Amino acid sequence: MKRLPSFFPLACLLLALTVPPSVTAATPHVVTTIRPLQLIVSAITDGVTEPDLLIPPGASYHHFTLRPSSMRSLTGASTVIWIGPELETWLSDVIWQLPQDVDVISVTELEGLHTLPLVDNAVITGDAHHAGRIDPHLWLDHENARLVARAVTADLADLDEMNARRYRDNLADFETALTRAHEAQAARLAPLADRDYVIYHNALQYFEHRHGLSPSLVFVQDDEIQPGIRQLRTVQQALAGQSPACLLLDSTANADVIRTILAGRELPGIRVDTVGEHVEPGPDGYVALLDSITASYEQCLSGSQAQ
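^ thats the sequence. predicted structure below, dont judge the formating
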């Protein structure tokens, strides 16, 4: 058998010392289901790795068909982060069948999570809610985002000890940025809290709850279901006696439904990006999402021209 030169072990040691840690040790492969979770996670993994996004921006998180490449990404992940069956119902069976070495972080199961009941009626009256069901748009509460970031940091620090300090430093920076951003956003919205507005589909109540905002009317209770004639007439009648500053619209807004309800009435429509569709991942991505939403409410409630 041919012997290796005597200097070979030393050469290997020197090579190991000169190769960056990111090469000598595999970094975690993190998969997030929706863009808001990717924005939160990318703040924690900044400088180490970039989390994959399962559902592309613009695609429905309620109904999505997994491609073979998506399945490979999930089964090959070290950590998968999703909201839970309350949002990505179609993913439930897949999540439970992932390999045992894949860590799964379900946001709805995090201890200390702030939850709100799912609004049950298009015309808000009293406490009309889906019994026992929570509103799954949990990422729009900055304190929930803080909990997600902490859970991700703990998981990754355990999986990747070499970069554990970087994850924890990133978390500290993220939490500081969250607190400062929320204070600034609150200062911008507080003078407008008494203004009246209506909303197409209230996917924003977590954000509204933190800032003392509340629409006087919600057009549709479920953005996935076409409202019936009776419901449309009920909303029409409710709107007739109001003078809202604007109508807030998300990406699910149906133009035909809006035209039917307004029945020729002029009402400024302001678009709100609830998922960060146009926000790039990075350390400031999640804060940019909340800043964008704040700007939309400002535009609506201050009487600025519609987008």
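Strands lie at 30-32, 52-53, 79-82, 103-106, 117-119, 129-134, 198-199, 217-218, 247-249, 269-271.
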